[in-house]
Design a protein that fits this description.
Elements (H helix, E strand, L loop, with lengths): L9 H5 L11 H14 L13 E4 L9 H11 L8 E4 L8 E3 L4 E2 L8 E3 L4 H10 L15 E5 L16 E5 L12 E4 L8 H4 L2 H5 L2 H6 L3 E5 L18 H5 L1
Parallel strand pairs: 1-2, 3-5, 4-5, 8-9
Antiparallel strand pairs: 6-7, 7-9
Helix pairs in contact: 2-3
Length: 246
């Protein structure tokens, strides 16, 4: 949902922000965003102008119902040019990362939360963001170019609030192996219950980013979370746990 949708409240997070979008007050959240900007806690919202955003929501999504994405669209329209926002709200998909060649049936909900819907979110997103991206077609990612790295350099993993795994992944396309080559960097965040702790390397290998990245010279960074008592589903903190317990 929109920024601060959960309002540091787990009850709001699992109801309004997931199942009851009519309870999401977008004008209020927009005002909170501007107020937070004034505190210096977030960057100037003017920097969102010119950003390109792709919103995808399956018509059969029972985890984050489609109306929540409509509220997010309404929120973004306050900060991003309408021409820079792409939407796909018509695919009969459940809650998942959508691909065009891997995963469960499009209407299935469950691990690894990757569904074959004849639609590649990875390609569509990268193409929408960068513009000059070509589809992977028959190309394959090079498994030798998927690297592990130590995330503990960047986080105090002993801190219960951090909820980050010690290991993350980086896909470096063939053309980007040469340090003299200028390549883009894209950060791909996994969803809840999609970390390496839960599904191993399934997301980093099969979400579809590596195949597109290989033919477009895009390095893909895959940070990884880890579950703890405050974050049992190993989510990135979209809802409450860091702020609420800090």
């Amino acid at each position: 949902g929109p920024f601060y949708c959960a309002q540091d409240n787990a009850y709001i997070a699992i109801n309004a922000c997931m199942l009851l979008p009519d309870l999401i007050n977008v004008p209020y959240l927009v005002s909170i965003t501007h107020a937070t900007e004034l505190t210096g806690t977030i960057d100037p919202v003017s920097e969102m102008r010119g950003d390109r955003v792709l919103l995808v929501s399956g018509t059969k999504d029972t985890v984050i119902v489609p109306g929540v994405m409509q509220k997010l669209l309404e929120y973004y329209e306050n900060f991003v040019h309408a021409s820079d926002i792409g939407t796909e709200f018509k695919i009969p998909a459940e809650h998942a990362m959508l691909t065009d060649n891997y995963g469960n049936d499009c209407s299935y909900v469950g691990k690894p939360f990757i569904n074959n819907c004849n639609y590649s979110v990875a390609y569509k997103a990268l193409h929408h963001i960068y513009g000059d991206v070509v589809p992977a077609t028959s190309s394959k990612a090079n498994s030798a170019h998927l690297l592990e790295f130590d995330q503990s350099e960047f986080f105090a993993l002993s801190d219960e609030l951090v909820s980050m795994d010690e290991t993350g992944y980086l896909y470096v396309p063939s053309a980007c192996q040469n340090s003299s080559k200028a390549c883009r960097l894209h950060i791909a965040l996994h969803g809840c219950l999609m970390s390496r702790e839960v599904i191993g390397t399934t997301f980093v290998k099969h979400a579809g980013y590596n195949q597109v990245a290989e033919v477009n010279d895009i390095i893909v960074l895959y940070p990884q979370t880890h579950s703890n008592a405050l974050n049992p589903y190993s989510c990135f903190d979209w809802y409450v746990f860091v702020t609420f317990y800090n």
